[in-house]
Recover the amino acids of this structure.
């Protein structure tokens, strides 16, 4: 059925010339394909290479299709009904790297969820095993039901999140309009959480169609102001990771940003690997084999305390990788350690 939806997609509009695109300032964005995935679990495992005119299957992300950059979907019924989600390839990496369990008793957190691209992706990877006949909002706390808690602190963005979840037909998600940092890891609802996705607010410096704007802004900012802004973001991001590490049963945490700055990426990861007392913490990085091993661009060795710790990290370079700029890391709990809940 979903394959049928893909076949109905229309490739609309012509293609702008490179000169026109350069003039309009979105030359880099124009080189990024449109990436499309189905919102619901159940996509047939084998989609032909040409599921719709001009489409191809992505080589790294299962069930992700790519179309030429100027393809428009906004009038397409499947897109309008929420069955298809337009999501940059790099932004699909975190949910795939987190690899949430598709078990009935799985308990997972998306700590910073709105507008909900990664939440709907997680829901689908968990096979969306909610209670049949209920919706996302009355499915909470049911014993032995799969739970994906999606936190969003901003009220307006929370509204967008709930709309996206409902359009995508997510049955296993409980959206929560709260600050993740105020969540008690020992609350009986959360003690069984095993996987956490953290995609917190960041500078957004990797987003291609904002690059020109950001470069201008950064030019106006002096070096000191820029460092101060990035350091503030990095402190908040580190706080979020440390909080996630307090959940007693959490075994896997993915931290991602759409920033190109090492301050928000490698430096935050480096700090999260040691505890407040500067001793090795209970988490280490997943191995490279465990984190999209076929992806070519990895972390920056010169920015890590141990250069070999860069290999398990993922970077996407705007303009070079047919994606926005992005960063993904994955922490796994060391054998035999449990949370100290400090
Ligand atoms: N993961 C989302 C997606 O793929 O659609 C994008 C997340 S966006 C980069 C970061 C979001 O985290 C924002 O909506 C922001 O309001 C929210 N946020 C920031 N700090 C938070 C906190 N402490 N608790 C919950 N949400 C938070």
């Amino acid at each position: 059925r979903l394959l049928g939806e893909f076949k109905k997609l229309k490739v609309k509009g012509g293609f702008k010339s490179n000169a026109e695109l350069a003039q309009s300032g979105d030359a880099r964005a124009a080189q990024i394909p449109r990436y499309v995935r189905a919102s619901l679990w159940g996509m047939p495992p084998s989609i032909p290479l040409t599921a719709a005119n001009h489409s191809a299957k992505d080589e790294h992300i299962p069930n992700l299709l790519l179309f030429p950059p100027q393809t428009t979907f906004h009038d397409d019924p499947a897109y309008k009904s929420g069955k298809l989600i337009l999501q940059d390839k790099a932004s699909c990496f975190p949910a795939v790297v987190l690899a949430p369990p598709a078990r009935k008793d799985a308990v997972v957190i998306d700590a910073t969820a709105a507008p909900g691209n990664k939440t709907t992706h997680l829901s689908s990877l968990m096979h969306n095993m909610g209670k049949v006949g209920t919706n996302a909002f009355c499915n909470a706390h049911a014993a032995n039901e799969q739970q994906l808690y999606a936190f969003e602190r901003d009220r307006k963005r929370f509204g967008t999140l709930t709309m996206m979840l409902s359009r995508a037909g997510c049955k296993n998600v409980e959206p929560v309009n709260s600050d993740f940092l105020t969540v008690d890891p020992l609350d009986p609802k959360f003690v069984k959480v095993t996987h956490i996705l953290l995609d917190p607010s960041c500078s957004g410096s990797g987003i291609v169609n904002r690059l020109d704007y950001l470069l201008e802004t950064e030019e106006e900012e002096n070096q000191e102001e820029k460092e101060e802004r990035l350091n503030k973001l990095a402190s908040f991001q580190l706080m979020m990771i440390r909080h996630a590490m307090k959940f007693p049963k959490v075994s896997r945490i993915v931290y991602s940003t759409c920033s190109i700055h090492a301050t928000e990426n490698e430096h935050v990861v480096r700090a999260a690997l040691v505890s407040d007392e500067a001793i090795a913490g209970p988490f280490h990085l997943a191995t490279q084999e465990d984190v999209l091993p076929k992806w070519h661009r990895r972390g920056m060795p010169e920015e890590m305390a141990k250069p070999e710790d860069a290999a398990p990290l993922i970077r996407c370079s705007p303009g070079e990788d047919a994606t926005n700029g992005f960063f993904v890391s994955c922490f796994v709990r060391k054998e035999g350690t449990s949370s100290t809940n400090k």
About this structure: The pocket of S-adenosylmethionine is lined by residues 91, 112-118, 151-154, 157, 179-181, 199-201 (CB under 6 Å). The chain is about 30% helix and 15% strand. Residues 1-25, 44-51, 132-141 have pLDDT under 50 and may be disordered. The longest helix spans residues 223-244.
